[in-house]
Amino acid sequence: MPWDVVDLKIIAPLAMLVRFSDGTSGEVRFETSHLTGVFSALKDFNFFNQAFIDSGAVAWPDNIDLAPDAMYNEIKANGVWVLR
């Protein structure tokens, strides 16, 4: 799928660069207001840095992941996906 994430790099607290299988790339940023519920663990920068790619999606331990298709669509349109 074109929205499969093939590379990621943490660039700052709560921010990363991602590249998709079709070559599209962009930034994903979390605003602290989004860090509730399952995402509250990402407030810990050491935990955030444990991001990895799991079956084409950005994921963290404890079954936390991001929808790669939503990420792809937003980055394709705007170059960045800000989770608010």
Helix- and strand-based class? alpha+beta
Strands of the biggest beta sheet: in what spatial order? Answer: 1-2-3-7
As residue ranges, the low-confidence spans are none
- Name the average pLDDT: 97
Strand-residue proportion: 35-45%
The N- and C-terminal alpha carbons lie at a distance of 26 Å
Give the assembly state of these chains: single chain
Radius of gyration: 12 Å
Instruction: Indicate the overall shape.
Output: globular
How do the helices and strands follow one another from N- to C-terminus? Answer: EEEHEEEHE
Q: Give the domain tally.
A: 1
Q: What is the CATH class name? A: Alpha Beta
Q: Would you kindly provide a written description of the structure presented here, covering whatever features stand out?
A:
This protein is an alpha+beta fold. The protein has two helices and seven strands; from the N terminus they run E-E-E-H-E-E-E-H-E. It is globular, with a radius of gyration of 12 Å. The chain has one domain: NE0471 N-terminal domain-like (2-Layer Sandwich). Helix content is 18%, strand content 39%. The strands form two sheets. The protein has a four-stranded mixed beta sheet with strand order 1-2-3-7, with helices on one face. A three-stranded antiparallel beta sheet has the order 4-5-6, with no helix packed on it. The termini are far apart.
